[in-house]
Amino acid sequence: xxxxxxxxxxxxGASGIAAATARHLAGLxxxxxxxxxxxxxxxxxxxELPGVAGFEADLLEPSAxxxxxxxxxxxxxxLDVLVNAAGIxxxxxxxxxxxxxxxxxxxxxxxxxxxxxxxxxxxxLGPMLEQxxxxxxxxxxxxxxxxxxxxxxxxxxxxxxxxxxxxTKAMAAYYAPHGIRVNxxxxxxxxxxxxxxxxxxxxxxxYVRVRQxxxxxxxxxxxxAQAIGYLASDAAxxxxxxxxEVAGGWSVAx
Length: 254
What we know:
Blueprint: E1 8-12, H1 16-27, E2 31-36, H2 39-48, E3 53-56, H3 64-76, E4 81-84, H4 103-131, E5 134-139, H5 155-175, E6 180-187, H6 196-199, H7 202-211, H8 221-232, E7 243-246
Parallel strand pairs: 1-2, 1-4, 2-3, 4-5, 5-6, 6-7
Helix pairs in contact: 1-8, 3-4, 4-5
């Protein structure tokens, strides 16, 4: 059975997929800490889940990852699971097709999504190496390897998620002998605050009916959270280096 009883987890992000993941991991028995730069998001989640601890920090700050891991160790005594779910879209900063994209668009998603994931992994690996075990799950995107030219031409976003996938596989190979598993999930279009633009666009919703044919609808944050829960648990004890697509058939749709 998928269980995290007796384990501790640190999740980055406090809304959308990250919030659903915190709920799900807590429901599986984990002691959970959530990192977010929004005190409002953290307060909302802590009110909903009194057992979940919030840690307010911005991963753009070089010391934030180390501070978050230290706080988790101080509270739980160990760190068994890291879920890198925090992420942004750079569209409002100028992300788009490469010939139109701005440096700010590129830097915004690379700094928050790719560098933030790297920093959190680096901070968490110290205690995981000491204890000889751990599970890291990185949230990427199906757009890293299955583009959608017309509706989702945000090339910096695709690239940063490709970086998350490459980092996942490289880490999985290196840390497997140390008992540390590293996997990724690649969601399709999920009904989160970040996809609000898409949710209100009839043309995109029509596209989703074709591109996510399993349901013909957007996925839910809980769909992704359950996949993360599996990869984080001992049910996946023999699984590392995989990219689990949670996208309703996105990459195989005609």
